[in-house]
Write a structure and sequence with these properties.
45% helix; eight-stranded parallel β-barrel; globular; 11 helices; alpha/beta
Length: 272
């Protein structure tokens, strides 16, 4: 009998205090989301790390963080802005090293505008890749040194492959791909992108992280699983060949729905 995939979750340290036993009982994957703000990364975040370590005594699951992303484009054409983005990525990796985290989520540079215009300007596709490679060059080297994988999450991506080819361009075990189900569902319904399961299948062996959230295809809802219109059996069919190599992370606006979403998926026979 095939073992159902094990769910993990994204949460703050405040939520971790209430869900610690659920996580540790099955050593579920955890993504901490307290370290994405510039105010945190530029300040003294060591008390947050100390608090996390205290809460995670006896935890042996796979730990990651959501890296910085607000206002940060990996393909920013302004060289001074790229330097700032590069610094933020390194700050995130400093947190990973202090926590012992092995994964950091970062955001795709591709926009809806890109999809319709990258082939409208000669060399535009290659320029995006070159800019991202310049921005992330030092971060990728550092991630390799400390054993962290940067997973590039789809945001506005309409093209299932551009982000994957970008990850491939680094030729590094420290760069892989993430799929956010709600973002993919929005792109499908609002911009004509393929459905969610196509994003997952096209990522293939590059996929090392999935944000699980339900949505209506109109906005980035982060609803509890079962509250939107995503076809969940197709999503889990697409994930199955990876046999646990991709972390399945519930990322919900209301952290109080993490357990109810996990129960819903268990009742559907899709995950545990």
């Amino acid at each position: 009998m095939t073992t159902l995939p094990l769910l993990g979750a994204a949460m703050s340290l405040d939520t971790l205090e209430t869900l610690r036993d659920w996580l540790i009982a099955d050593q579920r994957d955890l993504e901490l989301q307290d370290f994405s703000e510039a105010e945190v990364l530029c300040g003294d975040w060591t008390p947050l790390v100390a608090r996390a370590k205290a809460l995670l005594q006896d935890y042996e699951g796979r730990l990651g963080i959501h890296g910085p992303f607000w206002g940060l484009s990996l393909a920013n054409p302004d060289f001074e802005m790229r330097a700032l983005v590069a610094r933020r990525m390194l700050q995130g990796l400093e947190v990973c090293e202090a926590l012992g985290a092995s994964q950091m989520v970062i955001h795709s540079p591709y926009t809806t505008w890109d999809h319709n215009n990258l082939d409208n300007y000669p060399g535009a596709r290659g320029r995006v890749v070159a800019l991202v490679r310049e921005t992330l060059a030092e971060a990728v080297r550092r991630a390799e040194e400390i054993g962290v994988t940067l997973v590039i999450e789809n945001i506005e991506d309409r093209d299932t492959d551009a982000r994957c080819l970008l990850a491939d361009s680094f030729d590094s075990p420290a760069v892989a791909v993430s799929v956010d189900t709600g973002h993919a569902h929005y792109a499908h319904d609002a911009t004509g992108a393929p459905p969610v399961d196509y994003f997952i299948r096209r990522a293939g062996e590059r996929l090392r992280h999935v944000h699980l959230q339900d949505a209506d295809g109109y906005a980035d809802r982060h609803w509890g699983i079962g509250q939107g219109t995503i076809n969940w059996p197709s999503v889990f069919d697409a994930v199955a060949p990876l046999e646990g190599r991709a972390r399945l992370i519930l990322e919900l606006r209301d952290h109080g729905q993490i357990l109810s979403s996990a129960r819903w998926l268990a009742e559907q026979g899709l995950a545990r």
